[in-house]
Sequence to fold (272 residues):
Amino acid sequence: MESTKFDLSGKTAIVTGAGRGIGRACALALAANGASVVLAARSSDQVEQVCEEIEQGGGEALTVTTDVTRKADTESMAEQALKAFGSIDILVNNAGVFMMKPLVPLENWSPPLAEVVPDFEAGFNDDDWYRLLETNVTGVYRCCQAVAPHMMAQKKGRIISIASIDSEHGLTFAAPYCATKGAVKSLTKALAREWVRYNITVNCVSPGYTDTDLFEPLAGNEEMKAAAAKHNVPMRRFAQPEEIAVPVVYLASDHASYVTGESIYIDGGVLA
Fold:
């Protein structure tokens, strides 16, 4: 029987938003399985720490300051990856932002979130909408566009985007966020068909409630976190970032060569 070890030796992976949370976990897991990792993020402080962890473990890593909403940045990210490691084999689109507010101000109702979310009662504004859209959707578009020509030329590639279970069902007070993750899922399906002839697979990993600081209303609030898990997650706990990284490594490996256009839901039973 063939070994199921996810051997990524000789492959180069780019991970956006690699300094913390799911991005950090993905970068470390890819490196642990042999990949050279390009750590892309807007701030260099956190990715430098991840880079040190990888190098201390005997792996190779490069930090690249990248704002995924800027075309020049994503193109430079790809160029630096090629210069350092000679190929781009894996792209993990992880950079993202999250906000919770009502779409319009609520009347005669002040839910518990109003106490912990800044400007909750004012509802979403245009700046909020465009920030979510630019990072969560345009960022994925720009990164895919930057790496695809190189993957096409080498006739192979793996693109994995971190979407969300909120691409599949609605989350109260997060309508614009849900819309952006739905867009990522649709973009994934379209690109999977468009690039299949180049041996490029395009997939999503869609987490549910995950213990990261992206979900800022609950960051550090263990009481609210426990209540959210109890009422929303059949397993009654949040996922750890490392649990989201496992299917990312699988999709990046040769074992997932026949998987494309899919979304793997890691949600503790939320969508069951």
